[in-house]
Amino acid sequence: MMFLLDKRKREMIMVDPYITDISPDAVMVILPHVGLMDPFVYAKKMGLSLDETLRIFPLQHDLEARMFDMKYFGVSYVMERNRRDRKQEQKGLKL
């Protein structure tokens, strides 16, 4: 599972597909697979035996979320494209 987080405000950022700007405090947070975080619930939810699930997802210690700078996820490319498209639309409306 992954999501955007504003580190300063400590809240999730909902991403609009037409995004043109994002907080400089935004980071991408990637959580470990749910099977690693809670293999017991995962086994029950997926209808697997606990033994089978633990073979696939052995118990681990020190699991932690990872945070990455937005520059690694192509969001700046999407924002630039959306800005360009918006500018084109505004030019079309002025004609």
Give the overall silhouette. Answer: elongated
Number of strands: 4
In terms of structural class, how would the helical and strand content be classed? alpha+beta
Report the helical percentage: 40-55%
Order of helices and strands: EEEHHHEH
Oligomer: single chain
Taking the alpha carbons of the first and last residues, their distance comes to: 45 Å
Strand order of the largest sheet: 2-1-3-4
Largest sheet: 4 strands, antiparallel
Low-confidence stretches: none
> What is the CA-atom radius of gyration, in angstroms?
20 Å
Average pLDDT, all residues: 86
Indicate the proportion of strand residues: 15-25%
The number of helical elements comes to 4
Give the topology.
Elements: E1 2-6, E2 11-13, E3 26-30, H1 34-37, H2 39-46, H3 50-56, E4 66-69, H4 75-94
Helix pairs in contact: 2-3
What does this structure look like?
It is a single chain. The protein has 95 residues and is an alpha+beta fold. 41% of the residues lie in helices and 18% in strands. Strands 2-1-3-4 form a four-stranded antiparallel β-sheet, with no helix packed on it. Strand 1 and strand 2 form a beta hairpin. Helix 2 crosses helix 3.
